[in-house]
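Design a sequence for this backbone.
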């Protein structure tokens, strides 16, 4: 009986459509867990076609008035929104930690990086300025306009409930578009709260909508005739599917995919500093980051010292519930994903990698049902091993050994993924060569997670990005607008010429 009452007490979350909380018409839902305890804390609807149609209709209806709202007024609303997001940071951070499992400190950092995109988008009056050229021909002027697309959609992953959506919708909305966010059904609450705060900031109803769902909702959005553009972040297979499906239906698409981020460690690097940086990059957020360093390439004689430093430091990491003080690493997102990562550790050991630290036996006292896995470290990994070839997305750091920088660059450039990479060295020549020759979209020099600030753009190359434009920064503005070029002449009566069929040259 008590179990029945507990099940009935789990709240069902709404959708956010046309400026208010809206019940879903779907008869399907899924559980939302607290990964630290393994308990179901909420349920979220899995939106159906009717829900998607309502959200798109609301966004479409809101678009004309929002498009015609001067950028300066849009910017004022965004500024108020940033202020509200900052005022509610503690609440939002706890929501992120509760549903994802990451530590409060990590959640706070990711939220801050998202808020910085709102700050960037608040510069809409400047960002949306076109170009003008006088006298491109005799008495002829030319100027360009950046105009919004219409209804835009964001499909966000579970690992950053606030930051990744904030890479998308503030820029799209600043540009004059309306927006529908499809957050991961694993972490829906942060998106709903951000929508409430945006409404409180004065955003007109229908400009921003939130619909939780799975593949049924995604497919409905990808094929909807009134959707103009799709932004997404996810694994490479999902990104490729979204890109191909949306493009086939005539949408503009940016689909960020998976990663296998390498860090090259040169023999001249500050190895204690490097070890600390690699631990933060490899095990932060339990490795559930698209910019996590998961493969370390030790050059020359750097390997032995580096492994000793990593082993010493990793063994001291504290794993537990992310909402507790002093915790370095929280749980993984689901029990199934935790077990999948365990399977990779099994495979690495079976394929001959040296298992320096094994996190499979970790039990967190008081949280025995949580989805925990201890930090794991492999050495002597080779490129034919499964733990090298696959994106593990967990707290597993692998070390490969090579003889030279040339070999390290060639190894990385052979990878199908090209999201982020880093080099640790004291040599400016080595760093310059690395940043020039490496075929990766984001590069760090003595910085392990080179996520650009909001006024630069985020995105990888090769199988880490499907589409032409990256997120936020000026490429984000370009993605969410289309350019119109206007050429004008105001001839005087005595300047009229006889008609000609020749190609005009404006000379």
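Sequence:
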């Amino acid at each position: 009986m008590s179990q029945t009452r507990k099940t009935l007490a789990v709240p069902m979350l709404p959708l956010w459509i046309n400026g208010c909380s809206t019940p879903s018409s779907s008869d399907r839902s899924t559980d939302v867990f607290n990964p630290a305890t393994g308990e179901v804390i909420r349920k979220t609807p899995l939106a159906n076609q009717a829900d998607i149609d309502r959200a798109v209709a609301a966004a479409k209806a809101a678009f004309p008035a929002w498009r015609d709202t001067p950028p300066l007024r849009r910017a004022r609303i965004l500024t108020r929104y940033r202020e509200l997001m900052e005022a509610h940071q503690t609440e939002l951070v706890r929501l992120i930690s509760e549903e994802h499992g990451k530590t409060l400190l990590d959640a706070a950092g990711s939220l801050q990086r998202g808020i910085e995109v709102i700050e960037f988008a608040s510069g809409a009056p400047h960002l949306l300025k076109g170009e003008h050229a006088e006298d491109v021909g005799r008495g002829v002027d030319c100027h360009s306009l950046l105009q919004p697309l219409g209804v835009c959609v964001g499909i966000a992953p579970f690992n950053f409930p606030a930051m990744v959506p904030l890479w998308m919708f503030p820029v799209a909305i600043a540009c004059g578009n309306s927006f529908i966010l499809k957050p991961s059904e694993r972490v829906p609450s942060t998106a709903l709260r951000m929508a409430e705060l945006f409404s409180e900031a004065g955003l007109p109803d229908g400009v921003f909508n939130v619909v939780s769902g799975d593949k049924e909702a995604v497919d409905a959005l990808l094929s909807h005739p009134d959707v103009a553009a799709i932004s997404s972040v996810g694994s490479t297979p999902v990104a490729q599917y979204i890109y191909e499906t949306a493009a086939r239906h005539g949408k503009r698409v940016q689909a960020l995919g998976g990663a296998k981020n390498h860090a090259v460690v040169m023999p001249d690097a500050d190895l204690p500093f490097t070890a600390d940086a690699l631990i933060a990059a490899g095990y932060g957020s339990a490795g559930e980051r698209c910019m996590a360093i998961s493969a370390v390439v030790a050059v020359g004689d750097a390997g032995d010292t580096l492994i000793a430093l990593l082993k010493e430091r990793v063994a001291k990491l504290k794993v537990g519930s992310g909402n507790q003080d002093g915790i370095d690493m929280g749980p993984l997102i689901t029990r199934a994903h935790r077990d999948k990562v365990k399977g990779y550790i099994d495979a690495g050991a079976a394929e001959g990698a040296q298992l320096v630290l094994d996190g499979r036996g970790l039990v967190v006292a008081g949280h025995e049902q949580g989805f925990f896995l201890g930090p794991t470290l492999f050495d002597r990994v080779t490129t034919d091993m499964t733990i090298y070839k696959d994106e593990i997305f967990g707290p597993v750091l692998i070390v490969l050994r090579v003889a030279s920088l040339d070999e390290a660059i060639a190894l990385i450039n052979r990878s199908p993924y090209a999201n982020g990479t880093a080099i640790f060295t004291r040599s400016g020549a080595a760093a310059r060569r690395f940043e020039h020759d490496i075929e990766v979209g984001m590069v760090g020099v003595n910085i392990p997670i080179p996520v650009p600030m909001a006024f630069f753009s985020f995105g990888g190359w090769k199988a880490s990005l499907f589409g032409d434009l990256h997120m936020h920064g000026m490429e984000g503005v370009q993605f969410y607008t289309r350019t119109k070029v206007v050429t004008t002449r105001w001839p005087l009566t005595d300047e009229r010429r006889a008609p000609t069929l020749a190609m005009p040259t404006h000379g």
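The CA atoms of residues 172 and 480 lie 5 Å apart.
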